[in-house]
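Troubleshooting: if your tokenizer reports a length mismatch, compare against these two reference records.
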Amino acid sequence: MAGMTSSARRPLLNRRLAEFGTTIFAEMSALALSTGSINLGQGFPDTDGPEVIREAAVRALRDGRGNQYPPGPGIPELRTAIAAHQERRYGLTYAPDTEVLVTAGATEAIAATLLALLEPGDEVIALEPYYDSYAACIAMAGGTRVPVTLRPHEETRDGVVHRRFRLDLDELRDAVTDNTRLLLINTPHNPTGTVLTRAELTAIAELAVERDLLVVTDEVYEHLVFGEAEHIPLATLPGMRGRTVTIGSAGKSFSFTGWKVGWVTASPELVTAVRSAKQFLTYVSSGPFQYAVAEALALPDTYFQAFGADMLAKRDLLSAGLTEAGFKVFQPAGTYFVTTDIRPLGENDGFAFCRALPERAGVVAIPNAVFYDHREAGAPFVRFAFCKKTSVLEEAVSRLKTLAG
């Protein structure tokens, strides 16, 4: 490469991103295609959401609403709908003009928030395993990630074994230093399916107030909570309204993941900071879809109840099938993912297991280790998505049962 200067010989990719490479989702989705396997790896539904919402988008397109740049903070109708949703469900009051920001999905909301609030050297405590974009966004902002690991826990109640991943509050408290800028919390939690309890959230809130920390809380699975579990927004707890950035998403709640409509709710000061970063990322996005999501958020509670009941039935179907196939199953209290332990199958390397699974059983899953800094802690765990047609899950279960033999 004649003529290159010495500075051009350094690696082309910014060193902050060098550790990340291609996402595991791209690798596993390609594997699903090449082998004709059922893809229970990536978390997207295989059916569209309600027809009434899709028609609202079509109507907006035809009426010329949103076909040009929408307002930077999002269209007023959607910001008003987001504020109304937060008040109706949680009693949280936000001013649509100053405390709500529409983003290109929750992924941009996370990126813009971290880019806005972090300086190089700031430490961010994140619950491990964590959604892969967290680590990349912290790195892009020049921050330092400090993982606090959710650990598998098993107890027997009334003769039934209950398994969940649990937060060690002492470990969380010990992770805070003078350099800690913010806590990055995700509940309901991807990939473990854990829903943080009121006691856990109260302890997090008390720590944030005591140490004067900002909190970013990813609540995109707020409408996918099962059984006795309850989604409690951190911003509802004492001292948290002014220090919490809450992130939501239409993709997960209405099964239109390709529309990429997310949002941030926070105090005016925090929203102004996040918007300052967001305007130089996408500026705006998803114009016509914003009108449709505004209508979606106003759907009656019966929609959300039916949506949750459908996912609960699918959770139980896949969990039972995985148990029968020989996996140890951590039945999720939320999200549309189920984490399993592969050691009862005589395996302990999730990467090797997932790369071989398409040939062995015609199913694709994701190794949880990709979501860990402490790879060894996640090595034996594998995640399956159940946001698929019932017939697809039944076929996947049938294939997976061959592992038990």
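Reference record two:
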Amino acid sequence: MSQKVNPTWTLLALAISAFAIGSTEFISVGLMPMLVSSFHIDLAQAGLTVSVYALGIMVGAPVMTLLTGRLNRHRLMMLIMGLFIVGNLLAAVAPTFNVLLLGRIIAALAHGIFMTVASVIAADVVAPEKRASAIAVMFTGLTVATVTGVPLGTMIGQLGGWRWSFIFISGIGVLGLLADYWLIPRNLPLPTKATARGIIRVLTNPQLLLALLVTALGYGGTFVAYTYLSPLLEQSMGWSASAVVVILVVYGLMVALGNTLGGRWANQRPLVALFKMFVGLLVTLLVLAVTAHSHWLGLLTVLVMGIFAFMNVPGLQLYIVQLAEIHTPQDITMASALNISAFNVGIALGSGIGGQVTTQFGLAWTPVFGALMVAVSLILLAGLIWLARPVENELPEDCED
């Protein structure tokens, strides 16, 4: 690159943008009771703010990757953050619930493409041997958002109304846009052009397709209960709205711990590690179904769920890349984008099922149906382990370390 850049500052800019992106994804989990009251809807309808957002990412990741593949990376990041800000401002001023959902979809389209582009930029601005670390630094923005952004947005909503939560996130988006403008190089190399045939190649490969299904069902199982975490804590366990804010902060810390542990455990044998993680999640969800009406035991179980909830993310993302390197090496970027879509298929499916469960059976039943999703993913994962055995020795050495 002819332009001299400081990788540390570039990664900081990406982390700020990732913080904004991460904050908006789950902000409505903390705002759920306020949205129900403001728009006179039920919990199942309010849950659409999570599932519709997830669907927007699901579609946005591969489609936006196809549409923007040849755009200058700096210019593309400006467009992404601009789209993100517009979506959240529209949600903030939404006169009706449908307009709020439209704002969520617009922001989600930005989210889907951001995850792919930011990862590539992070890898491009450092030496090859530091790429994994650079991507990890960028993703700290998402982790910090889980720990602080969502609870802070919830607190702002409780103090000034839910609309101010989306204004707050828009403000963080503006900071991210400015940081990206000044700190992201303007002459980054363009990646290999993604094609629609690449999507077909990935989806028609049995192991890649099975891995995507494991991602959707295993990751999504948590969201049957997590989407309705605030009302579960308040209505079933008897915690106050102010206490829920504090609980969400601690929950975020548990998520951060789980992410760190999950990344370390999945480095060597990701499939075996993932199987153990999903078993832990399955057991925790079943225990939550029993403790859902207990003030303290319910809280303890929720925090344990936080450890297992997103622990599987590094392993799932790592393994899809490893498989793509073997089976579709020309489509590694698209495989990664489709896995991001699979994560959000899981969120949409999980939150959608959770909405129906709360309507038909009640909040306390959401962990049971979440456990069923995770159980199916374990069956599929067992099949993937069986299929993977003949090619384990073909994995590149740097993927096994």
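Descriptive notes for reference record two:
- Confidence is low (pLDDT under 50) at residues 391-401.
- The longest helix spans residues 7-39.
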